[in-house]
Every structure is written in C-alpha cells, then in structure tokens.
Amino acid sequence: MTGAAYPGADFFEDRWGSYPAEGRVVSRLTRDYPRKAGSILERMYDLRLALVAPPRSIAHAAAASPERRRVLVLGVAVPSRLDWMERGDRQARRVPA
Amino acid sequence: MTAKLAASRHEIVIRVKEVGGKLRVPNLNELLLSEDWTGFDWIITVDDDVELPDGFMDSFIFLMERFGLMIAQPAHNLVSYASFEVNRRAWGTLARRTGFVEVGPLTAFHRSIAPQVLPFPDVGMGHGLDVHWAFLADRHGWPIGVIDALPLRHLRPVGTTYDSAPIRREALRFIAERGGLPRRLALRTLESFRTL
Q: What's the CA gap between B113 and A91, in Å, rounded?
C-alpha cells in the first residue's frame, strides 16, 4: 500500500495540533507544555543517556573523526509571530491570559 | 541559534532569509539555488523557532555518519512541540533508524541522496514532503532516522502561523501524485543504536 494508491489522509489526522494523540505517558504529561513534569523527565532521560554514552564522549568522538565536511544550512526566518513561549508559561502557572 | 550551528570544526555555510511574501519551500529553494549545493556533504534546513543543545553541529554530523543515516533530524525533547511520537527522544538511545523523518524543524540530507530530494517540490509549507521521503526511503532502502542524543526544543506548535486547511489539501494532493508511506509503516522505529 504505497505510492499513488495511498491517499495519505491518515497521516494528517492528528498532526495539526501541537501534540500527537498517540497515547504514550510522556506525551500526555508534556501535553500542556511546558509543565514541570516535562523538565523533570527530561533530566531523567539525560541521565539515562549519560549512562549509555556521556555527552563528552560523543563530543570527543566527533572531534576525533578525521573528515571535515562541507555543510550548507538553509533557514527561513519569520519576523513576527505570536509569543507562544509566554502563553505556555502563563498556562503553566495558571495565570489568566 | 545560527551561532550554535556555525560553532563547528566543519565548514559551515549558513544562508537565511526572511519569509517575505512566499511560503517556506519556495524560500528554501531560492536559498538552495543561490549556492552550488551539489558541492556540500550535508544540506540542513532549519526553522527559526528551535533551541539546540550546546556543541550541536559537530556531534550531529558525527552521529548521522556514525549510524549511516542519509536523512536525519535531531529528536524532539520532551517539552518540544512535535507532531509524531516516533520523532520524540527515546529512552537510552543515541539514535534510531526510523521509517519517517519530519520536514522540520531541522532536517539534514546527505549528499548521496540530495539530488533525489532537492530542490524541494513546490508544496508551499512543505507538508507531505516527509511522507514522500518515507516512501522513497522504503522503496530505495535509504537509512533515515532520528538522533536522540541531541534533542532540540521546538518552541512553537506546528501550523500556527498559517491557515492549515489549504496546506493540508495541497499535501494530500502531492502525496497522491508522488507517493507516500502509510502512517502505520512510516511511524516506526526500525533499529535502535545504543552504543557509539
């Protein structure tokens, strides 16, 4: 079921909000970003990752790799926007907007 | 953010423009075509509403190459606005090969597959491109995936600066014409990498 026979509609059913509805606990906890639980969980993930590969070891390995690459970075800046960070902070503190 | 992208031992060329009266993809193509992009090892597109970890670029390039990924993105951290769970950071993994890499907020393309996906087909904000990349990756066996060790934070919900209904219709039309991978096949982790 690939190619032109696939209409693609299912991909967009829950994409157009801010969070997926895929039911994982982490998604539910972090849904109303940026809640406190999210940052606590983030630290736990960081600690777990540090046991697998400390960030310093990744950086050392990256620095030791011999090849120097050419990288093109393309960005489009949006000059004006709603201040979503501020809105999120207000929601987290339960202060009326 | 551009300072973190430029802080690298690699040769980094950054091209940024304001959105102007155009949508995202025409802007990116304009930037792309202003350079001899075929001479670059990696081409990275980035939105302006992300926070990146320190030392991002060198480790990102290293990890993508270490795990052989041809299209890749950093994972979303746990407080990042994300669209799909498969692109959010996973527990205790450095990187994962997945069936799907998002069109944003930061996406990297290796030179080996760049001519097959660049310049971008003109689909406005780019939605649907990633579903098509998933299709191409599946068909051609391209390894694509997510770098969990360098999670970013997307500061803004998806689709809040434009009317999403026509964008969605355009995406669906594009997928129907060019091919896409169904959600159940695309939004999967195919392999997890836990050691360097």
A: 43
Residue B39 within a domain: yes
Contact yes or no for B37/B114 (Cβ under 8 A): yes
Pairwise CB contact (< 8 Å): A76 & B17: yes
Alpha-carbon gap: A94 to the closest alpha carbon of chain B (Å): 18
Please give chain A's pLDDT, 97 residues, in tens: 444 456 565 677 655 433 433 344 555 555 554 556 677 888 999 999 999 898 899 999 999 987 899 999 999 887 655 443 333 333 333 333 3
Total CB pairs under 8 A between chain A and B: 233
Quote the CA–CA distance of B12 and B2 in Å, as a whole number: 10
Structural domain that includes position B159: 2-190
CA distances for A88 relative to A5, A34, A38, A39, B94, angstroms: 40, 6, 13, 14, 29
Nearest beta carbon to residue A57 from set B11, B179, B196: B196
Q: Where are the domains of chain A?
A: 3-93
- CATH number of the domain bearing residue B100: 3.90.550.10
Give the total number of structural domains in chain B.
1
